[in-house]
Every structure is written in structure tokens, then in C-alpha cells.
Amino acid sequence: MAYQYIELTQQGPLARLTLNRPDKHNAFNAETIAELLDALARVAEDNALSLLVLDARGKHFCAGADLAWMKAQAQMDAEANLADARQLAELMRRLDTLPIPVLAQVQGAAFGGALGLIACADVVVAQPDSLFCLSEVKLGLIPAAISPYVSRAIGPRQMRRYALTAERFDGAQAQALGLVHELAEQPAEAAQPLIDALLANGPQALRAGKSLLALVSDAPIDEALCEETARRIAAIRVTPEGQEGLQAFFDKRPPAWQHSKRQEAQ
User: Fold this and answer.
1) Smallest Cα–Cα separation from 35: which of 14, 57, 19, 59?
2) How far is 98 from 91, CA to CA, in rounded Å?
3) Which CATH fold topology does 202-265 show?
4) Which residues contact 111 (CB under 8 A, 6 or more apart)?
5) Which terminus of the chain, N or C, has less C-beta within 10 A?
6) Beta bridge partners of 182
7) Regarding the domain with residue range 6-197, which homologous superfamily does it belong to in the CATH classification?
């Protein structure tokens, strides 16, 4: 699939997915969502990848929904509207469940559906003066597809406030709410040590770790969960990667995957 509104590039184990519609402040439309779905499917299927960086060209990360797209939605019948809404919901689900970590770099405005993308990322670096807004109710709408992910990120109490007031808030408040991890004037520069740290880790451990975190999030700590966590650590210890990681630690040397990743990145 040839992309018009996004770019997908790869350097060794690192994939980069870039929103590339700066003249429209990277606003969503149906075509952008279709392209993102295709790109995420390709990333998920590539076992050589260990990390996805999500970023955007231009002044703003994403201004939310494209005006022309919203006008088209207003003319759709109920069935077409549901099909359209399902695509956005699937985009959020696919990003949230991507088997490798996702690091988002945010600048400028991040409104509406953009907060869903950010909330689905595992690590987020943003500019201090970035602006965030759950703006849907101002248009007589609701942040439906993104609500599970944003609410999980900032908590239901804060979600009630910001989803109902549609207040704008800056990077410092986004960090205080838990939506953003790090603030920096140059997110790409600040993100590089985090990227290096992630890529230094075991590729299969990153995938297994992300799957584990999805399992234990909000799960009751009962006998079944304890048994499953025990099963998972026991299983990964005997994998080639687990054995190599442990032996490298005992030998006081870098594990083999760090050497191979450096070669791939050159």
C-alpha cells in the first residue's frame, strides 16, 4: 500500500511511523486511518522489529479530526457512520496491542483522537508548551473510541473533568496527569536515550514484557494470575535469549543482541 499521509521507515530493529500531513496539522481523515491500520499491521508482522517511534511532521502532532472528514460523516447514514467509527476504534486497539513498545514524540497541538494515539503509546515525550484537549463535546460529540485508553492513562476522575469540560492543558499538566512521561523542548533529542535504552533490551523480552503488562493491568491478584506469571517467567528463562542474557550477566559482557542491533543500525 502506497502511503499519502504517513511515512513508515525502518532502521534495523527500529521502525518509525510519521504522520505526514503538516499542511492540515496532521488531522485525521478516513484515508489516514486506513494507512495507519496498514502500517501497524506491517509492523506487527515483522519479528525483526523491537520498537516503534510514533512522531509527526510540522508544527503540530495532530489537530484531531479533519474538517472535510467531519462534514462527510455528517452526511453518512447510521450504517456508514458505524463502519467509519469502527475503523478509528480498530486503529486505537491495534496501536495499543502492538506487540513491541511504542514511543511517541509530541509537539504542538494534540487534540481529539490524537490523545488516543498518545495514550496507546508506552512512552511519551512532549514539548512543555504542547497543548492537549479532549475537544469532542465542543462539537456536540463524545471521545468514544479513545476513551478507554485516555481514561486508563489519566484515571477516571481526571477523565471526567477533561472529557466533559474540553479544557486545554499544557505539557506540564499532561505529565502531572500521567499522559506524558518526559518534557523537552526538542522531543526527538530527549527521546534518544529512551530509544537507546529500549533497544538495549532483549527483543523477545520486550514483546513478552509488553504482553505481561497487558495481562496484569487491573487484573485481580489471585491464584490464577500468580500461576500465569510464574509460568511466563519460567518459560522465558529457558529460551535462547533468556539463556544468553543470564550468561552475559554472569560473564560481565554485553548480550549478543546488543552487538547485532548495533550492526543493523549502521
Assistant:
1) 19
2) 11
3) Lyase 2-enoyl-coa Hydratase; Chain  A, domain 2 (1.10.12)
4) 62, 63, 64, 131, 132, 133, 135
5) C
6) 125
7) 2-enoyl-CoA Hydratase; Chain A, domain 1 (3.90.226.10)
C-alpha distances in angstroms, 190 versus 131, 161, 182, 199? Answer: 18, 30, 8, 15
Ordered DSSP codes for 121-165: SSEEEE-TT-EEE--GGGGT---TTTHHHHHHHH-HHHHHHHHHH
Q: How confident is the model at residue 69 (pLDDT cuts 50, 70, 90)?
A: confident
Q: What is the mean pLDDT of the chain?
A: 94
- Which grid cell sits at 260? 547485532
Residues 114-137: tens digit of each pLDDT:
999 999 999 999 999 999 999 999
Number of Cβ within 10 Å of residue 165's Cβ equals 12
